[in-house]
Amino acid sequence: MRRIFLIGYMGAGKTTFGRQLAFNLGLSFIDTDVYIENKYHKTVSSLFAEKGESKFRILERKILEEISKFEDVVIATGGGMPCFYDNIDYMNNNGITIFLQVPDSELAKRLSLAKFNRPLLIDKNYDEIFSYVSSMLTKRLPFYQKAKYTVDASNNKVVDKMAQICAQMD
């Protein structure tokens, strides 16, 4: 039984690298944001706006508990999921956690190129995105650093490194 949680800030590559890792290991893949959207038939952005952050985080926790029962799966979590309640501890107790670490300058660059898919960033220029990312990373890093493993996700060997970690767990 394998359950691998990928955590990190938006733009770190949790979905992209998670899909590749799942394929390479012959596992299923779940993106928690997509799972939530399919379950509630609304976008994460609209649920967040409709319910407010505190109720959204409760909904997110329920989803975490539900998907933590799945086996042989790679799970790309929402960027904030590990940072609320005891979610990071819950993930650590129910699988392998891997923090995809990317410098804030690289995240800002990636997010600037994809800001039209990110409602919180759509009206921001690069400097504003960099400032926002740096501020949020400062708050979230203590939670991300509780992951069992950390992988530098700013280069092209990310999937190989994660696969090596998983091989050690066998």
How many DSSP H or I helices?
A: 7
Strand content: 5-15%
SS-based class: alpha/beta
Describe the global form: globular
Q: Kindly report the name of the CATH homologous superfamily.
A: P-loop containing nucleotide triphosphate hydrolases
Task: Look at the structure and give the mean pLDDT.
Answer: 92
Helical content stands at 55-70%
Q: What is the CA-based Rg, rounded?
A: 15 Å
Distance between the termini: 9 Å
- Uncertain segments are none
In CATH, the topology is named Rossmann fold
Largest sheet: 5 strands, parallel
> Tally of extended strands?
5
Strand order of the largest sheet: 2-3-1-4-5
CATH structural architecture: 3-Layer(aba) Sandwich
The oligomeric state is single chain
The structural domain count equals: 1
List the helices and strands and how they pair.
Blueprint: E1 3-7, H1 14-25, E2 28-31, H2 32-40, H3 44-67, E3 73-76, H4 87-94, E4 96-101, H5 104-113, H6 126-144, E5 149-152, H7 158-169
Task: Give your account of this protein's structure.
The longest helix is centred in the N-terminal third of the chain and has 24 residues. Helix 1 packs across helix 7, helix 2 packs across helix 3 and helix 5 crosses helix 6. With 170 residues, this protein is an alpha/beta fold. It has a single domain, classed as Rossmann fold (3-Layer(aba) Sandwich), CATH 3.40.50. A five-stranded parallel β-sheet has the order 2-3-1-4-5. It starts with a strand and ends with a helix. The mean pLDDT is 92. Helix content is 55%, strand content 14%.
